[in-house]
Amino acid sequence: MKRESGRHECQNCGREYNNVDVAVKENNVNWPSHFPENGFCVDCGSTNIKHISNEAGFEETFKQYEEKCREILPFYQELGLLTNFEVRNGLRDYEVLRQRVQYNIKH
Ligand SMILES: [Zn+2]
């Protein structure tokens, strides 16, 4: 996972940033980097933004995430509330995803 190498976290409010573009050609994935240019946290204005590094930590987090998904997904699937959406363009996909979810809830 290349994304891990650019992960940063604001030590004050916990907001995460990424200063590396992530592109996976075969999946048509293109996440632009996301980092405050002036070095100030967008949320709290702190400059105490630190690089998070350790692959092991990431894998552990990802494993927990997968396990949680396995537990809750069948529940939402049953309710017909599940939206399958692959984020391919990072934050630029947010609006599309939001509309898709809202459509699902209303129909
Ligand atoms: Zn912050």
Textual characterization of the structure:
- The structure is a single chain.
- This protein is of the alpha+beta class.
- It has one domain.
- Helix content is 36%, strand content 15%.
- A hairpin with a 5-residue loop joins β1 and β2.
- The longest helix is centred in the middle third of the chain and has 25 residues, at 55-79.
- 4% of the residues are buried.
- The structure holds zinc ion.
- Zinc ion (ZN) binds at residues 10, 12-13, 15, 41, 43-44, 46.
Distance between the termini: 36 Å
Mean pLDDT value: 82
Share of helical residues: 25-40%
Beta fraction: 5-15%
Main sheet specs: 3 strands, antiparallel
Note the overall shape: globular
In terms of structural class, how would the helical and strand content be classed?
alpha+beta
Query: Which regions contain 5 or more consecutive residues with pLDDT less than 50?
Result: none
